[in-house]
Design a protein that fits this description.
The protein contains 16 helices and 27 strands. With 556 residues, the chain is an alpha/beta fold. The strands form five sheets. The chain has an eight-stranded mixed β-sheet. Strands 8-9-10-11-12-19 form a six-stranded mixed β-sheet. Strands 15-14-16-13-17-18 form a six-stranded parallel β-sheet, with helices on both faces. Strand 9 and strand 10 form a beta hairpin. The longest helix has 21 residues. The radius of gyration is 28 Å and the shape is globular. 44% of the residues are buried.
C-alpha cells in the first residue's frame, strides 16, 4: 500500500466503528504505528459456540516492524479483552497502561500462559515520545478507575481520543481534568475522536454519588440479607458498596469469579479495603441483617452466580424470604430478555427486586450523554471531528451534535472499520482502506471457525443432524452392509423407522452406483450422498438437517 508511505498521518479503526465493543484504533506516520486499545466484542446469539469476536489483525501482522506501542485507555473488556489474542498473533514491543488496567492485563495473559513482561504504567503527567509522535494523557471519569483520554501530537497536528468518558461533577473517584482538556483545546486540536455510546440520549448523565445515596438508603433500611448484582469492573461502585456495608455493620460475601478477581485487583491497587469480606460458610452463622452478597449476573448470564441463585442451584447460597435483590446495572443491548427471565424467577421465589428506575436510581452509565458530548466538543474545539465507539446510528447522531456545536459538516467523518483518514498540512480526506473484519475465537482456536462452520452450527441447532455410516471394504471396492442411519435433533428413530429405511435405501443405491463406476473417492462419495439425500428429506419432512456421511474402511 503506497499511500502508507507518504507524509500524511493515517487514522483508522480495526474495530469499534458501527458496533459496541472490539475497540482497536491505529495512528500511523511513515514507519511508526501506535495502537490504542485491543478489545473484544461478545457474540450475538446467532454465533453459536463462539466465545469472543476480535478484530482482524492481518494488517498489523503485515506491518509488525512499524508497531511502536499498544496504549490502553482503561481496563474494560471491550478495550483490553483482545490483548491475549493480539500477543499470540503480533509482536507488540511495549504496552502502556495505568496500574488498574495493567493489573487486569497481567491477570488475563497469565490465565492463557502467555509470557509477556513489557507492561509500563503511565499517569496523567506521563509523556511518551517517539520519532514522529509525542503522546500525553487526560484523566477522565468513567465507571472504572484510571480511565484516560489520549492526545497524540503528530507532524500534522494533534489528535485527541477521548476514550470512554462522562462529566461527573460529584464523582466517587477523581474528577475529569477539565482544565487540561481546555488547555489542550486552546493549543489547537486537528482531529477529535469522541465516545459515541450514549449519543442518542438527551441530557446529562446522573452522578455516581446519586447512585451511592440510593444504594445506601436501601442497604440501611432493609432488615434482611441484601444481594447486589453489578458490573464487576465498576470498582468505584464496589468500593462504595463495601464502605456502605461497613457503616451498616454488614459483612460481605463475594460470589462469581470475575467479581472476586476485580475485588482482588481493587484491593491491591488501594481502592478497596477487604476487612469485611468473609466466606459464605461464616455468613451462615450471622443474622441476616448483618450480611450482604455481592455477585455477578447483572446481565442474566445463565452460569453467573445470581442466575444460579435464582434457579436454586447455587451450592453456597439459597434464597430466603426476607432477601432483597438489587440490579445495580443497566441492560447491555441484547440482554434484556435474559435479565427479565432472572427477575421473574426471583419474584417467583418471593423476594423483592430493585432495578434502575426513577423510584430507585441504583445505576448510572459511565458514558457521556448528548449534553456532555457537546461540552467535550466545545472544550477541545477541534478543526475536524470523527465519532467513534458506537453503532452507526450513534456515530451519525454524534456527528449531528458536532455540527450543532459549530463544526462544519464537511469536516466530519463517519467511518467504517478499515476506512482510513489521511491528515496532511492542507486538510483531512479519506484514503485507501486497510483490511478489517471479524475473527471468531472458539476456546483456544483463533480464526479457525469461519462462516461455513457457523452456518452448520445454526443448521444443527434448528434442524438437527443426520449421520449416514457406510462400512466399505476399500481394497475390494465393496459395500459390506446397508448403510446405518442415525439422527440427533432431527427425528426420533423409533417413530420414523420407514423414513430411516428409505434414507438407508437411497444411500445404499448411491454408494453401489459410485463403486461400480470408479475406485472409491471419499470426498466425491460424501458429496453425492449429501446432494441426493438433502432434496429427498426436504420434500418429505420440510426440514434440512446437516447430513454427515461417515465412511468406514472395514476389511472383509
Amino acid at each position: 500500500m503506497k499511500f502508507l508511505e507518504d507524509n500524511n498521518t493515517k487514522v483508522f479503526a480495526l474495530g469499534g466503528l458501527g458496533e459496541i465493543g472490539k475497540n482497536m484504533y491505529c495512528v500511523m506516520h511513515l514507519n511508526e504505528l501506535i495502537i490504542i486499545d485491543a478489545g473484544v466484542a461478545f457474540p450475538e446469539d446467532d454465533l453459536l459456540g463462539i466465545d469472543y469476536v476480535i478484530p482482524d489483525y492481518s494488517f498489523l501482522k503485515a506491518n509488525e516492524n512499524k508497531i511502536k506501542a499498544l496504549i490502553i485507555t482503561h481496563g474494560h473488556e471491550d478495550h483490553i479483552g483482545g490483548i491475549p489474542f493480539l500477543l499470540q498473533t503480533v509482536k507488540i514491543p511495549i504496552i502502556y497502561a495505568t496500574k488498574q488496567s495493567g493489573e487486569l492485563i497481567k491477570k488475563k495473559i497469565e490465565e492463557r500462559n502467555i509470557k509477556y513482561k513489557n507492561i509500563s504504567y503511565y499517569n496523567t503527567k506521563s509523556k511518551i515520545k517517539f520519532k514522529h509522535f509525542e503522546i500525553e494523557f487526560i484523566r477522565t471519569t468513567h465507571s472504572i478507575p484510571d480511565s484516560h483520554g489520549v492526545v497524540i501530537n503528530t507532524p500534522n497536528g494533534a489528535i485527541v481520543m477521548t476514550g470512554d468518558f462522562k462529566f461527573d461533577l460529584t464523582p466517587i473517584g477523581p474528577m475529569a481534568d477539565l482544565h487540561k482538556i481546555a488547555e489542550i483545546g486552546k493549543k489547537g486540536v486537528r482531529l477529535l475522536l469522541s465516545d459515541s455510546t450514549n449519543a442518542l440520549i438527551e441530557g446529562i448523565s446522573m452522578s455516581e454519588s446519586k447512585v451511592d445515596e440510593a444504594l445506601a438508603e436501601i442497604i440501611r433500611k432493609h432488615n434482611g440479607r441484601v444481594i447486589i448484582a453489578t458490573f464487576a469492573s465498576n470498582i468505584y461502585r464496589l468500593k462504595h458498596i463495601v464502605e456502605t456495608c461497613r457503616k451498616n455493620n454488614r459483612k460481605i460475601v463475594v460470589l462469581g469469579r470475575s467479581m472476586e478477581t476485580q475485588l482482588e485487583i481493587g484491593v491491591n491497587c488501594g481502592y478497596i479495603k477487604d476487612d469485611i469480606i468473609i466466606e459464605s460458610e461464616f455468613a451462615n452463622t450471622l443474622p441476616n441483617n448483618e450480611v450482604a452478597i455481592l455477585c455477578t449476573g447483572s446481565q442474566g448470564e445463565p452460569l453467573a452466580a445470581l442466575s444460579r441463585i435464582a434457579d436454586g442451584l447455587h451450592k453456597q447460597t439459597k434464597l430466603m424470604p426476607d432477601d432483597i435483590v438489587i440490579f445495580s446495572s443497566s441492560p447491555i443491548p441484547g440482554n434484556a430478555t435474559s435479565i427479565s427471565r432472572t427477575i421473574n424467577k426471583l419474584y417467583l421465589k418471593g423476594v423483592e427486586v430493585y432495578t434502575n428506575t426513577n423510584l430507585s436510581e441504583v445505576h448510572t452509565s459511565g458514558h457521556a450523554l448528548a449534553e456532555e458530548l457537546k461540552l467535550m466538543i466545545r472544550l477541545i474545539n477541534p478543526e475536524y471531528f470523527m465519532p467513534y465507539h458506537g453503532e452507526y446510528r450513534m456515530l451519525k447522531e454524534h456527528t449531528d451534535i458536532a455540527v450543532e456545536c459549530g463544526i462544519p459538516r464537511k469536516n466530519t467523518f463517519v467511518l467504517e472499520n478499515g476506512e482510513v483518514l489521511a491528515i496532511s498540512k492542507n486538510g483531512i480526506k479519506k484514503a485507501e482502506a486497510v483490511p478489517a473484519g471479524d475473527v471468531y475465537v472458539d476456546g483456544n482456536r483463533i480464526g479457525e471457525i469461519g462462516s461455513i462452520v457457523i452456518r452448520d452450527r445454526k443448521t444443527m441447532s434448528s434442524d438437527g443432524i443426520l449421520v449416514i455410516i457406510a462400512n466399505i471394504d476399500v481394497k475390494n471396492n465393496e459395500l459390506l452392509i446397508k448403510p446405518t442411519v442415525t439422527s440427533r435433533g432431527f427425528i426420533l428413530i423409533k417413530e420414523n423407522e420407514e423414513l430411516i429405511k428409505q434414507i438407508s435405501d437411497i444411500a445404499n443405491d448411491i454408494i453401489l452406483r459410485r463403486l461400480k463406476t470408479s475406485r472409491l473417492n471419499y470426498q466425491d462419495l460424501k458429496n453425492d450422498l449429501i446432494q441426493e439425500i438433502v432434496p429427498f428429506i426436504l420434500e418429505t419432512t420440510g426440514r434440512k438437517p446437516l447430513i454427515l456421511p461417515v465412511i468406514m474402511d472395514v476389511k472383509k
